[in-house]
Amino acid sequence: MNDFGRQWEDVRDDALRAFESVGRSGWYILGSRVREFEQALGANWGLAHAVGVASGLDAIELALRAAGMRPGDRVLTTPLSAFATTLAIVRAGGIPVFCDTTETGLIDLDDARAALRAMPGIRYFVPVHLYGFPIDPGGLRSLIDEFELICIEDCAQSIGAEAGGIATGLQGAAAVTSFYPTKNLGAMGDAGAVLTADRSFAERIRCLRDYGQTAKYKHAEIGLNSRLDEVQAALLSDAFLPRLAGWTERRRQIASRYLRDWRSERVRPVAPEGWGSSEWRPCWHLFPVRVAGGEKASLMAWLRDEGIGTGEHYPILIPNQEALRTVSSSCFGALERAERLSSEELSLPIHPYLTDEEVDRVLLAIGRWEESTPPSA
Ligand SMILES: Cc1ncc(COP(=O)(O)O)c(C=O)c1O
Fold first, then answer.
1. How many CB atoms lie under 10 A from the CB of residue 125?
2. Ligand 1 centroid – CA 86 distance (Å)
């Protein structure tokens, strides 16, 4: 699914120089390399303020708290995401409310609208641009406006994705992202960021990430230790961010190759609505496919035997996770589309160091599986 060996060969010189610059500076936490990275990231994304934090999980929690969320507030979100999306809501004291997704795994804005009508008073909204598929920005905007929502867009998988020329993360109060190593922009450890157009919002995040400190030894509120370190910021600035556009382009080429040469009937890509139109430009964090008829495990095992790694995003819906039994949460409706996608979804390799030959090998292996394995039903 990833090839960090190939990545290291590519980034090695820049990464070593970045590390050296931090070592020579003697300043390891929240220094000039963090400030530089924040500026470069904000400029790259088109948002005036970026604040580096310790993880994507913290970025969501801190953004909700900076947005004024209080313990006991309900937060509308998706049941199909990394558990961290909901964990952050719970850690901030929120009560997650789940509504169904579309067939492509994104929160269904019509269902969200129905949920907001049925449960008046919900003010907070955390949609996820899952798989790197951008949620329609116009639809998101009109929902936010209609219900006066405070929206924190989870862009952990969507850096570089855009729809109609608009990047993800520009409709809400803030975009949050993760630099977990497997992400499209990954660090060499944990890191994340909150991005916003609002200076005072950014200042609140800066305060909250550093024990709620407003000046040395002055603590205005109960914050966290969620500081980004200089080593990760330097690596991101010097070795990874400059390569992001090229990596995203390569992911798009790989996705096009998969889609162009797709033959299988029993395995179908979960391509986003509007695929093929130049308006929809996912960043293809993942290349999800659906395997119907309970055959996912068989295909996974087949590909594993052929030396091809796969992933599942995500095999258990968040509201079904055991950890949520002990906290308040609710579901709007039956979440049928999300349930079905979660049981059928498999992710194929799509990292930027994958070669065309390897993509072809994945396609051939799926073809052989289909020929050799009779349908189970
Ligand atoms: C959609 C989504 N949200 C949040 C997170 C949390 O990010 P992190 O692992 O940096 O805490 C992730 C990554 O795992 C993610 O994929």
1. 23
2. 10
